[in-house]
Amino acid sequence: MVDVDTNFDRIRRGVWVGPNAAKPYVEWNDLSRVLTDLLQWARSPESREKFDEVMYDSLKLLLKAANSDVKNKVANLSKLTQRDVDTVTVTIIATANIIRLLRNSVINLPRNQFLQVKTGLLDCILDSVYFYHDVGTKCHRVKHKIPYVLTYTPLCIEVIRAALQLTSNLCVGNHAVQGAVWARLYPTMFRTLLNSIDKQVKNYVCSILFHCTAWNGSSALEEMTNEDEGKEMIRLCVGLCQPPNNLEWAQLFVEGSFV
């Protein structure tokens, strides 16, 4: 049995980048299992110290490969074979685990946060938010004609949750990251996600809003309060402070910025 450190090194060296086109299900399924082990492993400070620019570049390539594979498969949902359906499922699960590993690797380690931004991972994470929102919307739209796509909707939400949580972590105390995130998500995607059916998605969005606005001189806060779309977001967040939502980050955002 291959140990966790060996699997970490295999990913770092790019062994899994670009799964074999002849057996993508096996490749992504195996990778997902390896990532599950690495998620727990990366919770220790000693393990997180092993992440470097090379590892983050490899994870970025994996993330791009996974998104590309899913994009190609779901381009025509009505023509998916059962094997395709299973392959898309394990690929989305692997994608969520890649992002969770990225999330775990930055805990209390500013160096790793910096490296994720330096290697362009932040852009890939935000691309994933947009992409999986589009996939989930597309699947929801055709669910009555193609019932099996209902499997993908909760999986897409898992990816979006993980991506938003990681984005929130990267925003903490980093004005450059906050500005980049704000430019990508404000106002349309923020507003769309605040209307999500998933409470955790909404809570993570509110945490990002909090980090982007909770400092003196925040241009993001000024933008929100002066524009109609921003004011609509504020109204949505106020609503999320109330039952049945009672979202913690919504309350922190509203109280920190407007009370």
Question: Could you give a short description of this structure?
Answer:
This protein has 259 residues and is mainly alpha-helical. The protein has 14 helices and no strands.
Name the descriptors:
globular; 259 residues; mainly alpha
Give a structural overview.
The structure is a single chain. Helices cover 74% and strands 0% of the residues. It has 14 helices and no strands. Helix 4 runs antiparallel to helix 5 and helix 8 packs parallel to helix 11. It is globular and about 55 Å long.
Blueprint of the fold:
Layout lengths: L3 H9 L11 H18 L3 H4 L4 H22 L7 H24 L4 H9 L2 H21 L10 H20 L3 H11 L2 H7 L4 H15 L5 H8 L1 H13 L7 H11 L1
Helix pairs in contact: 2-5, 4-5, 4-7, 5-8, 7-8, 8-11, 10-13, 11-14, 12-13, 13-14
Question: Main beta sheet: strand number and arrangement?
Answer: none
Mean pLDDT: 91
Assembly type of the shown chains? Answer: single chain
Any idea what the shape is? globular
Percentage of residues in strands:
under 5%
Low-confidence stretches: none
Question: How many E-type strands?
Answer: 0
Q: Can you count the helices?
A: 14
Helix content: over 70%
> Order of SSEs, N→C?
HHHHHHHHHHHHHH
How far is the first residue's CA from the last residue's CA? 56 Å
What structural class results from the helix and strand content? mainly alpha
Evaluate the radius of gyration.
19 Å
